[in-house]
Amino acid sequence: MRFTKLQKLKNRIIKYNKEADSVYIKLTEGKVVESDEDKKDIILDYDDSGNIIGIEILNASKKTNLPNAVTYEVA
């Protein structure tokens, strides 16, 4: 199954911003209180308990062949 642009996957949202060339993966609801760029162009957003809320990938078109398409699998 392929998803493009904005697709809700239960509590998850995956959004590709063509102008910013970024992909944001929202894993759960919550307020972002801290962001950390552990690796270049990969930003992790955390809530006040230190749980990961979201992941942003900058320069997405350089890091993946199809930044605006996602394959979602449940194992």
Written description of the protein model:
The chain is mainly beta. It has one domain (2-71). It has 1 helix and 8 strands. It has one helix spanning 60-63; strands at residues 2-4, 7-9, 12-17, 22-26, 34-39, 42-46, 52-58, 69-71. The strands form 2 sheets. The chain has a 6-stranded antiparallel β-sheet with strand order 2-3-4-7-6-5. A two-stranded antiparallel ribbon has the order 1-8. A hairpin with a 2-residue loop joins strand 2 and strand 3 (12-17). The longest helix has 4 residues, at 60-63. The relative contact order is 0.27. Residues 1-9 have low confidence and may be disordered.
Order of helices and strands: EEEEEEEHE
Helicity, in percent? under 10%
Q: Would you tell me the overall average pLDDT?
A: 81
Tally of DSSP helical segments: 1
From the N-terminal CA to the C-terminal CA, the straight-line distance is: 14 Å
Instruction: Briefly note the structural class of the backbone.
Output: mainly beta
Give unreliable regions as ranges.
1-9
Taking Cα atoms only, what radius of gyration do you get, to the nearest Å? 13 Å
Quaternary state reads single chain
Strand content: over 45%
